[in-house]
Every structure is written in C-alpha cells, then in structure tokens.
Design brief:
By secondary structure, the chain is of the alpha+beta class. It has one domain: Aspartate Aminotransferase, domain 1 (Alpha-Beta Complex). The chain is about 35% helix and about 15% strand. It has seven helices and six strands. Strands 1-2-3-4-6-5 form a six-stranded antiparallel β-sheet. The N and C termini lie close together (about 10 Å).
Length: about 190
C-alpha cells in the first residue's frame, strides 16, 4: 500500500467552509499544518450545512446510509477536510503512519464541485475486496466506474449505489482494517 495521498480541495468560493481563505494555495501550506486548517471549527454536521442547498439532501442521504452500514468501532469526524470514518486512537494508538497524531483513516465522503466522492482505503489496500467490488458493479450493470486508487466519483446522485456501498462497508471490520493496513505497511 502506498502512502495515503491527501485530497486537495477544489475551490468553490460560495460553498467552501473556509471561503474567507479564497486565493490561498493549500498546496503551499506546510504539511504539518494542512490538516489543522482543513478541520478548523468544522464538524460533520457543519460540513453538511455548508454544502449547497440543492445537493445537501443527496449528500445527507449518502452520509446516513454510510453511517448505518459502518461496522462498529469506526468514528465519524472531519478528516482531511472531508467527513471521515476512522479507527480512533483508543482502538489503534499508533494512528496513521503519515501523521501518527491522526487516527487511522478508513472511509471518507466528500461533496466536490463536480461529484460526490467516496474514498475507501480498504479497496486500495485489499485486492480481493477490489475484485469483489468491480465484479458486483458489473453484475448489477452499474454505470462505468469513475475511480482512482481509493476514490469513487459519482457525478450524478442516481449513480450512487448506496446498497452496494453498504455491502462493501460491511465486509471489513475495524480489526480487519487494522490487520490489512499493518500487512500493507510492512511491505
């Protein structure tokens, strides 16, 4: 598994929770400070409140489906400027290898300017899980995936396969994710 790459915010002056910082190049911030700026006074509920009103109900539905399907032990919080589901330090004291002061990330969801993003680190780290997911998408005749290493981008709300995403989440417990993470970290 490669290092988890930070997602760069796409600037949307009207919707972005830090719109007063418009024009600031987040890529030039010191890496040690970037996550602090992204999380400044932002809660998951606050994140949703800052989403444009026409997209908010769809994002909220995705968030609720994910929270309902998330295995026990993961915690919802702001992680890298998105709503994240993480393994808390109480369960995994080592934290994330790139920034041990942060909890181990697992899944994140984001409202980007042109898409809804679903980021699942287990897909990136577990080839069997990725193969299962791709096979299920094909079997269910879903639209072609717009996918990065761990990111699924959905440009239209109706493209979001909430049932399949819920099944995907149920396939990896906190213990499974820690074991997978540690195995990949040792490579």
């Amino acid at each position: 598994m490669g290092a988890i790459h930070e997602c760069h915010l796409k600037e949307d002056k009207e919707a972005h929770p830090l719109k007063h910082l418009h024009g600031l190049n987040f890529g030039q911030l010191l890496p040690a400070n970037k996550h602090l700026i992204m999380q400044l006074d932002l809660t998951p509920d606050g994140y949703v409140e800052r989403i444009p009103i026409d997209r908010r109900p769809y994002f909220s539905e995705m968030r609720h489906a994910i929270r309902d399907a998330m295995p026990e032990g993961f915690e919802e919080q702001i992680s890298y400027g998105m709503i994240g589901y993480v393994v808390p330090h109480e369960l995994y004291p080592a934290g994330y290898h790139c920034k041990p002061e942060l909890p181990l990330p697992f899944v994140s969801i984001a409202n980007q300017k042109n898409f809804f993003g679903f980021y699942h680190m287990g897909l990136y780290a577990n080839e069997d899980l990725m193969n299962w997911f791709k096979a299920e998408c094909a079997q269910r005749e879903l639209p072609k995936l717009d996918m990065g290493k761990s990111c699924l981008r959905f440009k239209k709300w109706r493209e979001l396969p909430l049932g399949l995403l819920s099944e995907l989440l149920a396939k990896m417990s906190v213990g499974d994710w820690i074991e997978c993470y540690e195995q990949n970290l040792k490579r």
